[in-house]
UniProtKB/TrEMBL annotation:
Protein name according to UniProt: Glutamate--tRNA ligase
Oligomeric and partner information: Monomer.
InterPro entries xrefs: aa-tRNA-synth_I_cd-bd, aa-tRNA-synth_I_codon-bd_sub2, aa-tRNA-synth_I_CS, aa_tRNA-synth_I_cd-bd_sf, Glu-tRNA-ligase_bac/mito, Glu/Gln-tRNA-synth, Glu/Gln-tRNA-synth_Ib_cat-dom, GluQ/Sye
Compartments reported by the entry: Cytoplasm
Protein function: Catalyzes the attachment of glutamate to tRNA(Glu) in a two-step reaction: glutamate is first activated by ATP to form Glu-AMP and then transferred to the acceptor end of tRNA(Glu).
Origin superkingdom: Bacteria
Enzyme Commission code: 6.1.1.17
GO biological process, one term: glutamyl-tRNA aminoacylation
Record-listed ATP binding positions: 253
Organism: Chitinivibrio alkaliphilus ACht1
Length: 486
């Protein structure tokens, strides 16, 4: 079988992480099987269409590395790839169903349908269409339409039949046709519903496997009936497990389903989000968690997908992103971190060295940007924490800063090994532990009590900056902590 899979987003909002996971699984399966990954835009809901949403969908897929083989901006032999440009095709197949008697025109008004639904709810009965127009012949319907009446087209659901289909993850699933109502295929505005357009397009584009969220399981018997009505063979069904919110329940916009580009804006690397999403519901078969795209594609299989939902663990995502940051080149990260730093930091001469020093200590590009801001700007204040205050209030700290200023000034080669050796000699002469000196010096340089290697930090900052910050902190101590306070 030639594998052809599709991701068919609707441009009515941003691409959230659940949709991205669906696209990603389609992409991995296509790569595994050396097939085609197709993007198709389902834009038949014109009332909710958003141009900006369409642009963001393309941007999100491209940013994640999910390049499609066919679709918008790529072309292909099965286009057009916008449903709004395929209306004649849907009309042709709708007429075929009407003429075969499988479908019929329904003239019920929105008011009647609302009244019917309200009565069913009041009587505690399942809601659904009551087949009021099912008896209308095609000839009569055409006359009424010619006279100006509007209608929708519904599928005529058979009674008392069982629909069987196989889900590649869950096995055989069955529904009875008595659970279905005569659903709408074509709306009054001439646009198809999702059910009709989806089936027609998947057949026309020779889609071999449909990978989609498990919320579509209940719609699959409708699609099976449509395939049967047309005399077409259905694709293989693969319904992916839901993603759960950390607070419980299905991940949704209300429960943290942020857009893909929101994670970009938060400083997550695309390969980290790709890796994280791939492992939401799928296992490569071992304990590995960090895999590149080629590894994931080679290992991907439906047998590795669990039908159970997976929790979207933000802490785990940030940990994974930290791993990718640590292994990324400083040269690349200088470009990636640009949105998170100001112009002064961007023009900091040893910026690449600073990124290389800090990247393994950060979980996101935003954190890296904040660390660079602290590193590249003179501290404007010193945190009022117990550890910092205790370090700056110690007796003799002013003299220590004076000694450090002298020590730094005398270093002819301002390199980390030379600085470390000079510090070691000073500590030995004064019989002091490293913490007694290193902590206040670090606070003076960054305004923080923790951070990367002190000597590498000093080398990156340079002699002039180090002396200026030590002098400033010494002055601060003299002004704020009198001998009486100590």
């Amino acid at each position: 079988m030639t594998v052809r899979v599709r991701f068919a987003p609707s441009p009515t909002g941003y691409l959230h992480v659940g949709g991205a996971r669906t696209a990603l699984f389609n992409y991995l399966f296509a790569k595994k099987m050396q097939g085609s990954f197709i993007v198709r835009i389902e834009d038949t809901d014109q009332s909710r269409y958003q141009e900006d949403a369409l642009t963001e969908i393309f941007t999100s897929l491209t940013w994640l590395g999910l390049e499609w083989d066919e679709g918008p901006e790529k072309g292909g032999s099965y286009g057009p790839y916008y449903q709004s440009q395929r209306l004649e095709l849907y009309e042709t197949y709708t007429q075929e169903l009407l003429e075969s008697g499988v479908a019929y025109h329904c003239f019920c008004s929105a008011e009647r349908l609302a009244s019917l639904r309200a009565k069913q709810e009041a009587d505690h009965r399942p809601s659904g269409y009551d087949r009021h127009c099912r008896h209308i012949s095609l000839e009569e319907a055409n006359k009424r339409r010619a006279a100006g009446e509007t209608s929708v087209v519904r599928l005529r659901i058979p009674d008392d039949e069982t629909i069987h289909f196989v889900d590649e993850i869950r096995g055989e699933i069955s529904f009875t046709t008595n659970e279905l109502d005569d659903f709408v295929l074509m709306k009054t505005d001439g646009y198809p519903t999702y059910h009709l357009a989806n089936v027609v397009d998947d057949h026309a584009m020779e889609i071999s496997h449909v990978l989609r969220g498990d919320e579509w399981i209940n719609s699959t018997p409708k699609h099976e009936l449509l395939y049967r009505s047309f005399g077409w063979a259905p694709p293989k069904w693969v319904h992916l497990p839901i993603i759960l919110a950390e607070s419980g329940g299905k991940l949704s916009k209300r429960k943290g389903a942020a857009s893909v580009m929101d994670y970009c804006r938060r400083g997550i690397l695309p390969e980290a989000l790709f890796n994280f999403l791939a492992l939401l519901g799928w296992s490569p078969g071992d304990d590995r968690e960090l895999l590149d795209t080629a590894e994931m594609a080679s290992l991907f299989s439906f047998s590795g997908i669990s039908p159970k939902g997976s929790v979207f663990d933000t802490t785990k995502l940030e940990w994974m992103n930290g791993q990718y940051l640590a292994h990324a080149s400083a040269e690349r990260l200088v470009e990636e971190v640009t949105p998170f730093i100001d112009e002064t930091v961007a023009q900091f001469p040893p910026l690449m060295e600073a990124v290389g020093l800090l990247k393994s200590r950060c979980k996101t590009l935003q954190e890296l940007g904040e660390a660079l801001q602290l590193l590249c700007h003179d501290p404007q204040e010193y945190p009022d924490t117990k550890k910092v205050v205790k370090a700056l209030k110690k007796n003799g700290v002013e003299a220590l800063f004076s000694d450090m200023i002298d020590l730094v000034s005398e270093c002819r080669e301002f390199a980390a090994p030379v600085l470390e050796e000079a510090f070691s000699r000073y500590l030995s002469e004064k019989e002091l532990g490293f913490g007694r000196v290193g902590l206040p010096v670090r606070i003076a340089l960054t305004g923080q009590a923790g951070g990367p290697s002190l000597f590498e930090l000093m080398e990156i900052l340079g002699k002039e900056t180090v002396i200026r910050r030590l002098t400033r902190c010494r002055k601060y101590v003299l002004q704020n902590y009198s001998e009486a306070e100590k």
